[in-house]
Amino acid sequence: MKTAMPLPVRFLNMVGRSVNTIGFQPLNLSLDKLLQTASDNTGLSDFGEGDFRQPLALLLEGLEKEANLSLLGRIIAKSDLVRTLENRLNFVALLKQQPEIEEQRIERPIFVVGPPRSGTTIFHDLLVMDPDNRVPLTWETARPLPPPETATYGSDPRIALAEQDLKRVDQLLPQFKTMHPMGAERAQECVTMTSHDFTSMIYLVQFYVPTYDRWVMECDMRSALKWHRRFLQVLQWKAPGKRWALKSPQHLWHLQHIHREYPDALFVQTHRDPVKIVISTSNLATTLHTLSSDQTDLSKVTAYYAKALSQGYNNTVAYRKSGKLPENQVVDLYFRDFMSDQVGTVRRAYEHFGMELPDQAATAMQSFLDNNPADKHGKHLYSLANTGMEEHELRELFTEYEAYFDVPRESL
After folding, report:
1. Across-strand partners of 270?
2. Does 96 fall in a domain?
């Protein structure tokens, strides 16, 4: 897949390739250098527990050996990683100063745990419309410190900064908004929180780093979820809500670990034809990879995501079969049903959990849908023909998942 970057970006990357030929690598992405840069920028040195060093080292190795980074890619990677390390330093400093933050309770959070491209994003956005839900927004997850406050939550200057960040992505990849809606005040995923422990599948979407991502799939998430909880506690400290409403496709691989960390959590598991999911997800990730690399490969990305998603699906089947997740704490929703009655599907989820969807919230949800149709920015087009894989070999990967949850198939 080739996506033409603007001329200045192409020139920048050409310069990067030129200096590489003479053995010079611009922008140091070594672990020690990144840690030192973050410390110098903040004046802080305590990064907290050292668990993050192993996944960060694996990520950096993947960036150097697998991601085929362009010069722009190196700039993006360094900027993102340094900002995350700076956030981590500031988190540790804040929690030292205000240890009571970690004493706050998080009760009955809602987790949307479906695969990417199955309606999870719009479902999560609809949950924002219910004032009883505390949903992490893009602006506050990007720049969480100082902690947001209720009085200025809708006027915080970080909202404008986040919009500027998103506009830059839009300028470089205008087609991306057809695939994934963006906005500073739209709901954001848990992967942005676990990235502060560098245990996050967000990095595979940004960069082709399969070795690192396989480690993430297999880890027990204890350290990452400790940081996930801290992140929520910091966000709710001065801007509390009744209950958290959260979402990430990564939870498919770690459903049992999420339940271990939040034993009273409520889970909304969304389902859609897994072959359709693989094709759409691979197309989205490969498009994003063009920001960081001049050498993208849809067939390679598809082959990886197919096996990875199969592992995630099978993990949820195994945990659901185990009976360790009580039925009154999980509801299954299907993409076809959701698209035919989105607010009604949200209402059914609430009812399953013994909750009532307020009429005012339902009205706000419908208004949001009316103002944000799925094709508002154009239609996301993708095809099996471009993936290098056949339908039958993909179907074979998902037989257990399709059978257990009785997932309807879609035309490709």
Report:
1. 333
2. no
CATH number of the domain within which 347 lies: 3.40.50.300
- Other CB atoms within 10 A of residue 300 CB: 15
Distance CA 396, CA 11 (A): 44
CB 77 within 8 A of CB 61: no
Is 170 within 8 Å of 177 (Cβ atoms)?
A: yes
Amino acid present at 150:
T
> For 204-254, how does the pLDDT look when each residue is reduced to its tens digit (9 = 90+)?
999 999 999 999 999 999 999 999 999 999 999 999 999 999 999 999 999
Which tokens is 21 given? 């030929």
Q: Which parts of the chain have pLDDT scores under 70?
A: 1-26, 175-181, 374-382
Query: How many angstroms separate the CA atoms of 215 and 115, rounded?
Result: 19
Q: Residue 373, SS3?
A: coil
Could you write out the DSSP letters of every residue in 179-243? TS---TTSB--THHHHGGGT--THHHHHS--HHHHHHHHHS--HHHHHHHHHHHHHHHHSS--SE
Note the pLDDT of residue 4.
59
Pick from 321, 383, 379, 329: nearest CA to 353 = 329
Q: Which amino acid is located at 243 in the chain?
A: R
Q: Please count the other Cβ atoms lying within 10 Å of the Cβ belonging to residue 154.
A: 8
**Beta carbons of 320 and 404 less than 8 angstroms apart:** yes
Does residue 71 lie in a domain region? no
User: How many independent structural domains does the chain possess?
Assistant: 1
Residue 411 located in a structural domain: no
Domain that holds residue 241: 108-405
DSSP state of 265: -
The 10 Å Cβ neighbour count of residue 130 is 22
Distance (Å, rounded) from C-alpha 174 to C-alpha 299?
A: 23
Q: What is the pLDDT of residue 265?
A: 98
DSSP 374-392: TTTT------GGGTT--HH
**SS3 per residue for 22-60:** CCCCCCCCCHHHHHHHHHHHHCCCCCCCHHHHHHHHHHH
Amino acid symbol at 174:
P
Classified as helix, coil or strand, 313 is helix
Asked if 212 contacts 62 with a C-beta cutoff of 8 angstroms, the reply is: yes
Looking at the domain assignment, is residue 284 inside a domain? yes
Cα–Cα distance between 307 and 398 in angstroms, integer?
9
Q: Which H helix or E strand runs over 363?
A: helix 359-371
The model's pTM is: 0.91
